[in-house]
Amino acid sequence: MKYKKLILIAALAIAGCSAKGDTASQQRSAIQQMRIDTLMKLYKVHPEARSEILKSKGYAVFSNNSSKILLFGFGSGYGVVKDLRSGKDTYMKMAQAGAGLGMGVKQQRTVLVFKDSKALSDFIKNGYIVGADANAAAKYDDKGLPALGASASAVAPDNVAVPKPVGVYELTEKGLAAQAMVNGYKYWPDDALNSK
């Protein structure tokens, strides 16, 4: 009975992770505002990210909730990819799955910076699922490094293969955590929001 309650709470938390609004237009506006808020927070914590994004081919900003109950973790979210070459926005959905010991609900924003055109195009067309365990995080408060930002390749241990054309920033309620990989996520275009 206890596990059923935990699963129900986690499912409700995850179900709440969709853009606000009753219409596609309202949802697109909410996602645009989420992007602005996330980038402002990122630039405040890590000002150099602004230059990295401006020099890139494009970037993506996602908001998601994830839950971990005992051995299983899952999550969902939404976001938008900006192609800086064409100026086009592509709205996307995301899902997460994973395994490991733990419990809790986490809200986060993820910014992906695409340093080459192929990585950007592949992401929009195919989304991707990224490995489960290879990550390195800069922690906030008294649990590690002070809140600082770094691209994925800057914090990766030597034995971790990081896709060089993509930088990853993860913003949580505690500040900024830079990861070598976004763990167990799948991204795909949101057909309802992309058809205008």
Explain briefly what this protein structure is.
Helices cover 31% and strands 34% of the residues.
Task: Explain what you see.
With 196 residues, this protein is an alpha+beta fold. It has one domain (2-194). Helix content is 31%, strand content 34%. The chain is built from six helices and five strands. The chain has helices at 2-15, 24-45, 48-54, 117-126, 152-155, 191-194; strands at 58-83, 89-114, 166-172, 175-177, 185-189. Strands 1, 2, 3, 4 and 5 form a five-stranded antiparallel β-sheet that branches. Strand 1 and strand 2 form a beta hairpin. The radius of gyration is 16 Å and the shape is globular. It starts with a helix and ends with a helix. 35% of the residues are buried. Mean pLDDT is 73; it is low at 6-16, 132-162 and 176-182.
Helix/strand order: HHHEEHHEEEH
State the secondary-structure class. Answer: alpha+beta
Tally of helical runs: 6
Cα-to-Cα separation, first versus last residue: 45 Å
Mean pLDDT: 73
Q: Strand tally, please?
A: 5
Described by strand count, sense and barrel closure, the largest sheet is: 5 strands, antiparallel
Helix content: 25-40%
Using only C-alpha atoms, the radius of gyration works out to 16 Å
Instruction: Please give the domain count.
Output: 1
In terms of per-residue confidence, which ranges show pLDDT below 50 for 5 or more consecutive residues?
6-16, 132-162, 176-182
- From the spread of the alpha carbons, the general shape counts as globular
